[in-house]
Amino acid sequence: MSCEHLICAACAGPVVEGRCPVCREGRAKVHHHGFLGLSPLAIAVIVLLVVALVALGHISGY
Prior knowledge:
This protein is an all-alpha fold.
């Protein structure tokens, strides 16, 4: 979902601009951020790197 076409009920401005606290809160709800503020893609990359390092360590005999 995108907030490009949403209009804020409090200030009547586009939510994407975040003019008021209500806009900013609505924009934050639409654009979910993953764990610790990281995007889901960044979390997936970190998990894959950890798995690769564990596999590499297991193969090399640590």
